[in-house]
Write a structure and sequence with these properties.
The chain is of the alpha+beta class. It is built from three helices and three strands. A hairpin with a 2-residue loop joins strand 1 and strand 2. The longest helix has 15 residues. The radius of gyration is 12 Å and the shape is globular.
Length: 76
């Protein structure tokens, strides 16, 4: 899932070299943390959070094949 989030995020932002994605295991689920440059934050979140919601939907669909719960957090 980490690679999927990284590919999506780097294609959206102006500074792909500043995209950081980490995976953390918490209470039986995987938390994917996404960190981008400050000026790219709006591009990853989108108007009314539409792009962030879309990223989470794609990751949820991909994780359903593995029977794992995966959550995407966008950090500042």
């Amino acid at each position: 899932m980490k690679e999927l989030v990284k590919v999506i995020a780097t294609s959206l932002v102006d500074h792909p070299e500043e995209v950081e994605v980490t995976e953390v295991e918490k209470e039986g689920m995987t938390v994917v943390q996404l960190k981008v440059a400050k000026e790219d934050m709006g591009k990853v979140i989108g108007k009314q959070g539409r792009i962030a919601k879309s990223i989470r939907t794609v990751v949820k669909a991909a994780s359903s094949k593995c029977d794992k719960k995966v959550v995407v957090d966008i950090l500042q």
